[in-house]
Amino acid sequence: MPTLRDELDGWLRIPSVSTGGGDAAALRQACDWVCERIEAAGGRAEAVTVDGGHPIAIGELRCSRPDAPTVLSYGHYDVQAPGPPDAWDSPPFEPTERGGRLYARGAADDKGNFLPLLHVGCELARAGELPVNVRFLVEGEEEIGSASVLRRLGRGEDEADCALVFDTIMVDERTPAITIASRGLVSANVEVRTAARDLHSGFYGGAVLNAAHVLLAMLAEVAPDAAGRARPELAAGVAAVSPDERASWDRLPPGADAITDVGAVGVAPEAGDEFYERTGAATAVEVNMVEVGEPRTIVPATARAHVSVRLAPRQRAEEIGAELERLLRAAAPEGAEVSIEMDLADPALFDPAHPALQLAAGAMERACGTPPALVRLGGTLPLLAVLAERGMPAVVSGFALPDDAFHAPNESFRLESLRLGEAAARELYRTLAELPIG
User: Fold this and answer.
1) pLDDT of res. 423
2) Cα–Cα distance between 235 and 382 in angstroms, integer?
3) 3: which of 89, 212, 216, 311 is 20 to 30 A away, CA to CA?
């Protein structure tokens, strides 16, 4: 049978780009590739589309135990566009090994990261040694928002006792991580109009509303304080951090280094010490863009901004979005026309004391030789919010590293990370067989 490395080479050669309109034929080929392997291992699989989206590979491998738990193994086969070919040292869809790394688009995000879950599950099934039922959910829209999978999961399909998600990074080359939370997001496009057209400031300045002034006053009303903390109305409902999780942060690289390594300046003296709380367990408000006027003497009639609020676990996007809109509109003077368009995504939080996560932590330590750190994703992953809403515990991990350059030219994945992923997948399936089902 093909080795894990052989299979990865073959999958990476399929240019399954979903961004920029996507490559429909290649996306279908990459989806069918997954289904073929599940069927060859004795399982059932099919390519399913939801509302005309890219196909999802849905498959199942069953073990002989009637009381075995079911594990949902999630990944995605779609990749980002490679960009200019001359930015790559080797062709992006011709996997090339250099210096202990495999270079190709999708090597880390997410084909190389996810494939051990599929490969090991199929290998165990062929040998009659699979200790759990494994349901696979491998999508082709992760890079463009996961609309099909979110609809499918939101309808209550793909039931399982826990989920395995290999789509994140390690703490360092030796230390695995289990992500127990992701932040939600309120994303707002704001437009202010104060006149039918821009006006001459010599004739009208000081007598008419200036869209720039109005917008800046509105943004000031929702901006964080001088220490970078969100105002109380936008930080309502944040979940407390457990002592065990806070202790786990001591194993992470110093937060001050994370700030200085990217050439940034901490918003307050304490920002480095509080880095992991601020970026994973607290609300963060950012003005991402302001667009207004031009360098001549006018009174601008229109002004636009983009504001985002990263939501901490236990906050609700709908509630915080409504509060953000209320604060913005309340700061606008009478006569100013304000339009606000929002996108909402809820945060997710999984209890590290849940049996699934406790079993997974032990499995990861045995596979990697180092206990996993408990971390929080500062970004937003809507899939996790849906799983959390359904009460399905998720073991969110992965073996990529920042140096893997995912989404950039010369994306790569360490061969050692591939080995660790294979060992972890094997140990996780074995250990999760002990998970109580109910």
Assistant:
1) 98
2) 20
3) 89
User: Over the chain, what is the mean pLDDT?
Assistant: 96
Statement: residue 438 has pLDDT above 80: no
CA distance 426 to 70: 15
- Residue 188: strand pairing partners: 307, 342
What pLDDT was estimated at residue 255? 94
Strand 373-377 to strand 177-182: parallel, antiparallel, or no bridges (unpaired)?
A: parallel
**What would the two tokens of residue 366 be?**
């045995």
User: Residue 83 has which token pair?
Assistant: 């960009």
Reference 214, options 287, 320, 289, 292; nearest CA is: 292
Task: Kindly report the backbone phi and psi dihedral angles of residue 148, in degrees, each rounded to the nearest multiple of 5, phi listed first.
Answer: -65, -45
Residue 159, pLDDT score? 94
Q: How many CA atoms lie within 13 A of 28 on its CB side?
A: 5
CB atoms within 10 A of CB 6: 11
Q: Give the distance from CA 373 to its chain's centroid.
A: 18
Give CA–CA dist 105/112, Å, rounded.
Answer: 10
pTM score, two decimals? 0.90
pLDDT (tens digit per residue) in 148-189: 999 999 999 999 999 999 999 999 999 999 999 999 999 999
The Cα 171–Cα 300 span in angstroms is: 48
The answer to whether the beta carbons of residues 185 and 345 sit under 8 Å apart is: yes
Place of tokens 């109005």: 214
Nearest to 382 by CA among 183, 157, 105: 183
Does the structure show a pLDDT above 80 at 316?
Answer: yes
- Report which residue type is found at 127: A
DSSP E strand stretches across 119-183: 133-139, 162-166, 177-182
Q: Which of 153, 122, 143 is nearest to 35 (CA)?
A: 122
Residues 363-366: contacts with CB under 8 Å, at least 24 apart:
363/424, 363/427, 363/428, 363/430, 363/431, 363/432, 364/176, 364/178, 364/397, 364/424, 364/427, 364/428, 366/427, 366/431
Radius of gyration of the chain (CA): 24
From residue 225, give the alpha-carbon distance in Å to each of 158, 286, 332, 343, 406. 44, 11, 20, 24, 34
Q: In this structure, are residues 163 and 357 in contact, taking their beta carbons and an 8 Å threshold?
A: no
In 159-242, where does DSSP find H-type helix?
A: 201-204, 211-222
Per-residue confidence band for 118, with pLDDT thresholds at 50, 70 and 90: very high
